[in-house]
Amino acid sequence: MSKQDTSDEDSQAQLDFDGQRDDEQLLFIFRRHIIAMRKGFYLLVIPLVITAIPPLIWQNNLELFWLPVGGLALGLILFLYHFILWYFTIYIVTDQRIRQVTQRGFFGKDVIELHLSKIQNISYNIPGFTGEIFQYGTIVIQTFVGDLVIHQVEHPDKTYNKLQNAVNNAVKHQGDYEEVTS
To answer: CA nearest 28: which of 177, 176, 153?
Structure first.
């Protein structure tokens, strides 16, 4: 096996996901913008700042200088929790469906599937100045049974276009399939 064959197999192995069907092709994967983790960033900084105040007030007590270290440790634990929630919440788009995998705590996971042929409409909005500057927004996918709202998506315009192309191709493919079976 050549080096090229090995790298092709490695890249193919990275494109597979748990629950993928044999006849299904992965189109793209996206996640929420890093700004969705701002609560985790706050929880990193706030304990550090609060525990840094006593050593600044009572500078003669050297034992108080351990407080900011504890505050940093607590902040890192809280930040890590929010990072895990953000990192493992992903949206997988294939040529047949959208799969939302939401991390719930350290061990919980919710999975929602939505077939592309069931999508009626897709829209997006950018929430003002901060959304425009940091390039995030909300994508709303409307179906017969309800809406799938994805908040704080990175580059919502590009993701919207990719989703529209995927839905159009799925509808076209389904129409071709119905013509063949008729």
So the answer is: 153
Nearest by Cα to 139 from 28, 27, 32: 32
8 A C-beta contact, residue 24 and residue 69? no
pTM, two decimal places: 0.76
Strands across the sheet with 90-94, in order?
26-30, 90-94, 97-104, 108-115
**Alpha-helical regions (H) of 93-155:** 128-134
- Can you state the angle between helices 38-57 and 67-87, rounded to 10 degrees? 180
Report in angstroms the alpha-carbon separations of 142 from 16, 29, 118: 27, 19, 9
In this predicted model, what pLDDT tens digit does every residue of 18-70 receive, in sequence order? 777 777 888 889 999 999 889 999 999 999 999 999 988 888 888 888 999 99
Bigger pLDDT: 115 or 5? 115
